[in-house]
Amino acid sequence: MESAGKYEHLVVFQRPCCWIGTGQGDTLQINQKVKQEIECIEEELVVVAIAGPYRTGKSYLLNRLAGYNWGFPLGSTIESATKGLWVWCLMHPKEKGKVMLLLDTEGLGDIKKGNLDHDVWILTLALLLCSTLVYNVLAVLSQDLVEKLDLVAEVAKKLGDKRSSDVNTFPDLILSLRDFTLDLIIDNREVSPDEYFEHSLELQPDDGTDGNSKAYNDQRNRIKNCFPRRKCFTFERPAQRNVLKKLSEITDEELDSEFMQQTMSFCNFIFEKSSVKLIDVNVPATGKKFCDLAESFVHSILQGDLPSFHDTLQALSIKECQRAADDSVAMYIRIMFASIKIPTHTLDILHAAHERCLEEVTEIFRGRAMNDDNGEFMEKLVVGLSKEFEHMYQENKEESIKLSRKRLNELYDPISVKILAGVYNRRSGFLEYSNDRYKMKQLYMDSVHALGYK
């Protein structure tokens, strides 16, 4: 990467800095020292922002764009590691004479935050300030994502429309699907991530009588209009769970090779396709103009120019929490049946598979569930998973009994033949019968022990 050169003395070129944080009363507050450093940048800015639910690995992708494993804080717990809007600048890796400005947003849906409007403010600022928005989610492309993008697009449009300008305020949209395990198959045909994304935005037939279809289609039309340039990347899980806890410390060789290839493709696309941020028609953003733009948006928010979306977000959160719980139960069933064969050889195998799946699906649930502050939907998920495990336990027991009875019948058949033939109806016949029963029992115990059934 090109050296920071004349900017190497600026802290924002050395490491990430919190630029727009939270002051008293959950209000937005600009860090003036960081602002002054950004204002020093004379080159045109390519602004890349990343947003999405907290604890989904957003910061790691930005660190890779910066060419490092470290930088933006990587949390290894269920708490959000990034607070507010953070900035890190570097000379553009591909285009000489331009600066790439990376924006890392506070994770959405942190239950300790309490203020749902704050989520909208942060995401709206990121959307309006960047030329490329990366929206990062775990595992699947859900209806909640569509609803949230639609909501924020509407908010950003209202705020952006206050500027008397013909410039398009909306950035290119890149959807990042992390820990993606689904097969990209639609109508029995393998599709690309982009096709998968576009398929989710397809409209439903609407004859005008179904209000749900109209709302469904309106959301997708608004997203298509606001984000005409769209891209989707899917990422494998980068490593085993115990390795992920120290992601900033490990080497690339320790990460999944497919994940590394996907990350490289993602970075190259951003380097080659992300455009300069425009302040106005044919007016590229430089440091001073960019900070003025940000200050005007923050001022509008502080003045109350944006309505409160608490109730709307709360409704979205409840719907997505329910979907996340339902999807997690379905994923649990799918993973369990893919990892074990019923009947299992031992109950320990069944319980071990349950523990692994439980950990995996609850982690994915936390990544999708928004504002489950009282743990209501997590509790529902645990109950649902317990019921599914009980069903599997009973099925495992019944199949084990069936197999055991089948084996007993197979071993008893020779004895039954002897009984019908009258072999045991003679002197010492009972002794022979007893010996045959004993051998049958031994053969049964040996066979079920070998299979692990009982």
UniProtKB/TrEMBL annotation:
Coiled coil: none annotated. It comes from the Eukaryota. Keywords: GTP-binding, Hydrolase, Membrane, Nucleotide-binding, Transmembrane, Transmembrane helix. PROSITE patterns: G_GB1_RHD3 (PS51715). One of its GO terms (molecular function) is GTP binding. The chain crosses the membrane at residues 120-141. InterPro entries: G_GB1_RHD3_dom, Guanylate-bd/ATL_C, Guanylate-bd_C_sf, Guanylate-bd_N, P-loop_NTPase. Residues 42-275 form the GB1/RHD3-type G domain. Belongs to the TRAFAC class dynamin-like GTPase superfamily. GB1/RHD3 GTPase family. This is GB1/RHD3-type G domain-containing protein. It comes from Sinanodonta woodiana (Chinese pond mussel).
